């Protein structure tokens, strides 16, 4: 006789477990399952009785559901959810309770201030100035970023291209990494922005950059271990109680790099900025 409790791979993601059994559940269990698909992080925040209250089911239904998705106990399921939340999946940060969502919408900017304070409290101004000098002295500046990191890579590119003759952001749409990494060489600087959730192959990409002889500067969130071979590694705090990471500190750090490089570029940088503005005005590209 087939068991009513399905077997699961030990490392199968929590949401995959729920989705796998959803069509076979009783109405009460299905209501619980659909709730956890929307708010999986709540299992890591509440005990079984509290979760039952949120879903309007019995505690016995919660226990039965936990066994259906392959966990021996509620505590083990709770630990699995917390572990997955730590990897950076924002699905685990949504809240069902109205007061939690109200706090996330508050306009007091506490998260931004806290992330900025924690990030800049650990920054070394000398290291930032050292990176700024490398930006100006390198043969070519490469800025790497994928997924959300691509947005910040493009911000750096658009700001630095006004003062640096050779700067490239990669990969662009449809490009492979190899098309760019194969052209990186000694004397180049690579600024790699690596915010979670990082794509597979991140370590191999960094290894290839270093093997090419380039200097490597890393900008990451606080979850990434310091890279032993990177000349610079800046950690940005991105904590958020809401459903999205808070990237205020990342943008602020990028701004600091741009400002320091611009100031250090001196007359040559100022002349390049003026030339860019003059051409834009001539071509009627901007309005003031």
From TrEMBL:
What are the residue boundaries of the HTH rpiR-type domain, all occurrences included?
A: 12-88
Q: Which GO terms describe its molecular function?
A: carbohydrate derivative binding; DNA binding; DNA-binding transcription factor activity
Q: Name one GO biological process term.
A: carbohydrate derivative metabolic process
InterPro entries per the UniProt record, alphabetical: Homeodomain-like_sf (IPR009057), HTH_RpiR (IPR000281), RpiR-like (IPR047640), SIS_dom (IPR001347), SIS_dom_sf (IPR046348), WH-like_DNA-bd_sf (IPR036388)
Superkingdom of the source? Bacteria
Q: For this UniProt entry, which segments traverse the membrane? A: none
Pfam families, per the entry: HTH_6, SIS
PANTHER family from the xrefs? Answer: GLUCOKINASE, RPIR-FAMILY TRANSCRIPTIONAL REGULATOR
Q: What is this protein called?
A: MurR/RpiR family transcriptional regulator
> What organism is the protein native to?
Roseibium aggregatum
The organism's taxonomic lineage, starting at the top: Bacteria, Pseudomonadati, Pseudomonadota, Alphaproteobacteria, Hyphomicrobiales
């Amino acid at each position: 006789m087939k068991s009513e409790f399905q077997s699961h791979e030990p490392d199968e993601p929590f949401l995959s477990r729920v989705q796998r059994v959803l069509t076979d559940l009783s109405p009460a269990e299905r209501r619980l399952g659909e709730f956890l698909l929307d708010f999986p992080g709540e299992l890591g925040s509440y005990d079984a009785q509290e979760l039952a209250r949120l879903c309007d089911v019995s505690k016995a239904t919660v226990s039965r559901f936990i066994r259906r998705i392959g966990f021996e106990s509620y505590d083990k399921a709770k630990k699995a959810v917390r572990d997955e939340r730590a990897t950076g999946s924002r699905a685990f940060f949504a809240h069902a309770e109205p007061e939690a969502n109200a706090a996330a919408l508050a306009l007091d900017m506490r998260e931004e201030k806290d992330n900025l304070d924690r990030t800049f409290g650990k920054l070394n101004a000398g290291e930032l100035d050292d990176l700024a000098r490398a930006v100006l002295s390198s043969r070519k500046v490469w800025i790497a970023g994928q997924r959300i990191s691509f947005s910040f890579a493009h911000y750096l590119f658009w700001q630095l291209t006004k003062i640096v003759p050779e700067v490239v952001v990669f990969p662009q749409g449809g490009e492979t990494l190899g098309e760019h990494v194969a052209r990186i060489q000694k004397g180049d600087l690579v600024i790699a922005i690596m915010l979670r959730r990082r794509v597979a192959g991140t370590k191999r990409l960094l290894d290839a950059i270093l093997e090419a002889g380039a200097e490597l500067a890393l900008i990451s969130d606080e979850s990434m271990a310091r890279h032993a071979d990177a000349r610079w590694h800046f950690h940005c705090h991105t904590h958020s109680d809401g459903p999205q990471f808070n990237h205020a500190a990342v943008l602020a750090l990028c701004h600091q790099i741009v400002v320091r490089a611009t100031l250090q570029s001196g007359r040559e940088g100022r002349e390049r900025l003026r030339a860019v503005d003059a051409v834009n005005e001539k071509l009627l590209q901007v309005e003031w």
